Amino acid sequence: xxxxxxxxxxxxxxxxxxQQWWVLNAADQTLGRLRARVxxxxxxxxxxxxxxxxxxxxxxxxxxxxxxxxxxxxxxxxTYYRHTGYVGHLKSRTADQVLSGAHPERVIEEAxxxxxxxxxxxRKLYRKLKVYSGPNHPHAAQQPQELxxx
Length: 150
Prior knowledge:
alpha/beta; CATH 3.90.1180.10; two-stranded antiparallel ribbon; 5 helices; 6 strands; 25% helix; elongated
């Protein structure tokens, strides 16, 4: 009769284990494909030890956010809404207005935020996203690795 081995314990990652820094250049990248890849990195889905309830994701730095590409007529038709809190004060701006305004990085931030969980974990993951409109970022000390899409 063969000897029965005890079952191996299931390995689960703890929050904060093995976190890397990545740099993505958003210039001429499609917004939808970019946000899907970034959300996956933030969530940690590429990690072998992915655990749905833990923060297993990496930090992501996105540069050149103002040069992101929107397909079709989204640049003129996609509308972002916000409410001031007063009756009748619903503000709206098109994607073109946001990208040519003072904070073009908000287009990418909102796109990625929509793909993250709407929980405490999702808010924690969102804080690991750093988006900059130009080609420079202040995270050189973390030695981020360059990541290319496609």
